[in-house]
Design a protein that fits this description.
single chain, mainly alpha, globular
């Protein structure tokens, strides 16, 4: 049997466990603000930087609430 990890936060293999759930990392108020900013036109890249999450996570949060993803306007020239 393996002994418990010696350093806090490490797994038995010595790796830091990944934290997947954005809802566990961001307070509900931040998620609401992020979604409102996204709907108001902020880019996923800017919001990802502001909240220190991935662009994929930024796009997933509104989708989970049934909000459709914005499309970039096409250049009609």
């Amino acid at each position: 049997m393996r002994s418990a990890p010696e350093l806090p936060g490490l797994t038995g293999s010595g790796q830091v466990p990944r934290r997947h759930a954005i809802v566990d990392r961001l307070p509900a108020a931040d998620i609401d603000a992020l979604i409102a900013a996204y709907q108001a036109g902020a880019t996923a890249r800017a919001l990802a930087g502001r909240y220190s999450i991935s662009e994929t996570a930024v796009k997933a949060l509104p989708r989970r609430r049934g909000i459709r993803r914005r499309r970039r306007p096409t250049d009609s020239n």
